[in-house]
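ping. complex inputs:
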Amino acid sequence: MDQELTILKDYLKQKGLRLTPQRESILKAFIENEGHLEIEELFDRAKAIDSSIGIATVYRTINLLTECGLARENSLPNGKKFYERLFRQGHHDHLVCNNCGKIVEFEHPLIEQFQKDVALKHDFILQNHQMALYGICSDCKS
Amino acid sequence: MDQELTILKDYLKQKGLRLTPQRESILKAFIENEGHLEIEELFDRAKAIDSSIGIATVYRTINLLTECGLARENSLPNGKKFYERLFRQGHHDHLVCNNCGKIVEFEHPLIEQFQKDVALKHDFILQNHQMALYGICSDCKS
DNA sequence: ATTATTATTGATATTCATTATCAATAAAGG
DNA sequence: CCTTTATTGATAATGAATATCAATAATAAT
Ligand SMILES: [Mn+2]
Ligand SMILES: [Mn+2]
Ligand SMILES: [Zn+2]
Ligand SMILES: [Zn+2]
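pong. complex structure:
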């Protein structure tokens, strides 16, 4: 939490923004969780720390956390977004169950390398990528 | 166009739905175009054929085309969707310019194979996947 | 400390893409 | 032609995310 807080502080200072109790509470709620959080879940967890926090502040703060590299934003085909920790956590992509919504993480360095090759070949400066495999998980098969 | 129309007809019949002039016009507008279409663009092209067509019918019809395998739906991080021909067109994924929005297609059979491997390893029945590489295109670099 | 400046907050209005509703219309089969 | 029922276009509704705004609080200056 200390390192993450420092990263946020530095980012805020650099942008001329301020560290507030709300932002600190939302960061804490976010960091405490290891999984994949939708906004409403993060809102609930933040309210458990400070019940007066508003949903608008949660949206604003998760955007700050994404900008400063502490959070990673993922979009689902249904138009919702979910967030997860990015700091000190290996890069990975996701398998998503089309039936129950379960999210499983995987890493594949070779795919990552090929993505870089493709970008290079097409003269793109690769900034980020987004890959998700959709299907039916083992639980839902049965 | 003939083969596509047959596919749509068969799908509609199988579902107990009807072929209408509107659906035929929207299919035509969709097929005529080789690129990546957002709904509003498809709407404009369909109106050029039949000016009385409503936007709701365009939404309804592109969903039908997606269901019967003639169209492929892609989501952008901004929440919009774009569509492209799927029938008799090789599978590919996309490079997207974060600056000008340009979309470049690429194929990488090895990545596709690895995706299948990953799904198998995690006991998922792979149904579809979604991969996009985001960055700065060669034009925008300069 | 006191004050001045300006970012922040929570509530709420707004936006924007997409879907739902509904009365009028028109396929399709007999 | 008739009957049944899917379809249409206009428009209302939805839902996630952002914009607005007056009140509040953090920071810097006095
Ligand atoms: Mn993850
Ligand atoms: Mn394409
Ligand atoms: Zn499942
Ligand atoms: Zn570009």
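Chain A has a mean pLDDT of 94.
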